[in-house]
Write a structure and sequence with these properties.
Layout: E1 4-11, E2 15-17, E3 35-38, E4 45-48, H1 52-61, E5 63-69, H2 70-75, E6 88-92, H3 101-104, E7 108-111, H4 114-125, E8 129-132, H5 135-143, E9 149-155, E10 163-164, E11 180-183, E12 188-193
Parallel strand pairs: 1-8, 1-9, 5-6, 5-8, 6-7
Antiparallel strand pairs: 2-10, 3-4, 9-12, 11-12
């Protein structure tokens, strides 16, 4: 069964976006190097440093399904039904899909709960992994014990306020294994398996 990862870029003080949802400097590392990592979108590719490139390539090519919340989906207009990772998208939402979703977003599935979203994404992903890319969904999935690995691209900036990667956890601490660490330019990439 597919492993469930999280991945977001995070400020040193724990934020994934400013209060207005703008990621500001958090994405700068995607274009701060000389190694081109193509995306699934023909009009976009990443240019990262040599250390970050294998990690980014693995996170994009190994992703079989991506889980997003409705707010992120709406902000990106569903990535034009072609997420940069190339993965199919599962949206967790309590609202009905957009009226023309079947025509505009045929590669996107809408679900009503985190549990259903993860189960659907695992089925879609097959032998690849599932990536959760929305802070609120990550928090809920952690509380439900449904996350296998936390991936963080930590950027050297302090926001002071904004949207947190990790919100309030219920039921005690979530123990993690020792990290895999990749020192990139403008980002420190950390991967923590969740201790079972």
């Amino acid at each position: 069964m597919a492993k469930v990862l999280t991945h977001m870029c995070m400020s040193l003080d724990g934020f994934v976006a400013q209060p207005d949802d703008n990621p500001a400097e958090l994405f700068d590392w995607y274009w701060s190097g000389d190694v081109v990592v193509p995306s699934a979108q023909k009009s976009m590719s990443f240019s990262v440093d040599a250390a970050s490139a294998p990690m980014l390539q693995e996170l994009t090519s190994g992703c079989g399904a991506l889980i997003a919340g409705r707010r992120l989906f709406d902000q990106t207009d569903g990535w034009g039904d072609n997420h940069p990772a190339g993965a199919l998208v599962v949206v967790v939402t309590h609202r009905p899909p957009p009226e023309n979703a079947a025509e505009r977003f045929p590669r996107t599935t809408f679900t009503g709960s985190v549990e259903e979203g993860i189960a659907t994404a695992k089925e879609i992903a097959g032998d690849k992994f599932v990536t959760i890319a929305s802070a609120d969904i990550i928090q809920q999935a952690l509380n439900l014990g449904l996350v296998d690995e936390l991936c963080i691209s930590q950027v050297p900036v302090l926001f002071g306020t904004g949207i947190r990667y990790f919100g309030e956890l219920v039921g005690g601490h979530v123990m993690l294994e020792d990290p895999v660490v990749v020192q990139g330019i403008r980002a420190l990439h950390l991967r923590y398996p969740v201790r079972r």
